[in-house]
Amino acid sequence: MLSRLREMIWADWIWFPEGHGWADLTDHDGKVYPKTQDLWATIPIALCFLVIRQIFERTVATPVASLLGVTDKKRVRASPNPFLESYFCSTSKNPAQSSIEVLSKQSGCSERQVQRWFRRRRNQDRPCKLKKFREASWRFTFYLLAFFAGLAALIDKPWLYDMKQVWEDFPKMPLLPSEYWYYMIELGFYLSLIFSIASDVKRKDFKEQIIHHVATISLISFSWLVNYIRAGTLIMLVHDSSDYFMEAAKMFNYAGWRNTCNIMFTTFAAVFIFTRLVILPFWIIHTTCVYPLSLYRPFLGYYFFNGLMFVLQALHIFWAILILRMVVKFLPGNHIVEDERSDKDESESEDEAGGHEKFQNGHVQNGHTPLNNNHSKRD
């Protein structure tokens, strides 16, 4: 029963165009082709990335953070209060003013004390600046090295310049050693992001990041199985080309280097929009979605691969909107760019000075007074 089901799932007509099949990927005459079992190597590679990351963050990222002046602001911890803690964990982390009045009566604290407790408790759960800097520096290092390694692997390949070459002799294109390692390292890295997702900084687009990681892993794995490797290398190169600029902008933002952060973010925005909204859809997706129809009849694997491509493209449009929103805020006032996905600490300055909370329509404005997040340090 299981063997029959396996045969049905991996039938040639599902994953390959008519006249081709898994037999085309059998090694012969010194030519090597991708195999399903090769993907198992990505698991130990992902575990190695996790170990290397811990060493990197301690021995490289932390000293660099100190050199750039990244410091953590001391946070005042919320005093132990089982009643408010239960409400915080089970009901709401940011209660409305009406709820604060009820909690004040039930807990025996003043409304101001309840507001202050929730503010401090929310700040406890937010990642510190040093943690965010270390994470950004790790990703910056990987994306930078991966982009130039991928560029070196593809610089002499004809399909980098003529994308129709992606389908030449498909699926009988032999696997090159550079393609093998490019795939294994990229897939291993994205697996490591899945493994570390519980401890990484959680941003407002957390769900979209999960979808992106799953779609990317699925796309890379599937393209390996059916030998869409030429298209896969182009997709990975395009993705790596902009990400390291964003991570660099984050690093300089945490360090308070306003001008450098703005330059890096502006560069990132330009490269992201050009590569993800122009090159990817109008060159690469056109090559994987439109051009094959002139060569083969559509098959299920064709729909599956391009379906994943459109999921990624939808996420790119979503992130492009966030980027443009940040650019619009950044340009007129010449202020430092803030990542809209990030959670910022809430101020307690008014509590310490004995000021009054500002209310709007009966509610605290985001639980705290607005902050000027610009840093005094300049390049």
Automatic annotation (TrEMBL):
Pathway: Sphingolipid metabolism; Lipid metabolism; sphingolipid metabolism
Region (Disordered): 340-379
Domain of life: Eukaryota
One of the GO biological process terms: ceramide biosynthetic process
Major localization class: endoplasmic reticulum
Keywords, sorted A to Z: DNA-binding, Endoplasmic reticulum, Homeobox, Lipid biosynthesis, Lipid metabolism, Membrane, Nucleus, Transferase, Transmembrane, Transmembrane helix
PROSITE patterns: HOMEOBOX_2 (PS50071), TLC (PS50922)
Polar residues bias: start-end ranges: 362-379
Residue range(s) of DNA binding per entry: 86-129
Domain TLC span(s) in chain numbering: 131-332
Ranges for domain Homeobox: 84-128
TM segment ranges: 140-160, 180-198, 210-229, 263-291, 303-324
Pfam family, one: TRAM_LAG1_CLN8
Chemical reaction(s) catalysed: sphinganine + octadecanoyl-CoA = N-(octadecanoyl)-sphinganine + CoA + H(+)
Annotated localization: Endoplasmic reticulum membrane; Nucleus
Membrane topology per record: Multi-pass membrane protein
Molecular-function GO term, any one: sphingosine N-acyltransferase activity
GO cellular component, one term: nucleus
PANTHER family noted in UniProt: CERAMIDE SYNTHASE 2, LONGEVITY ASSURANCE FACTOR 1 LAG1
Function field: Sequence-specific transcription factor which is part of a developmental regulatory system that provides cells with specific positional identities on the anterior-posterior axis.
Protein's name in the database: Ceramide synthase 2a
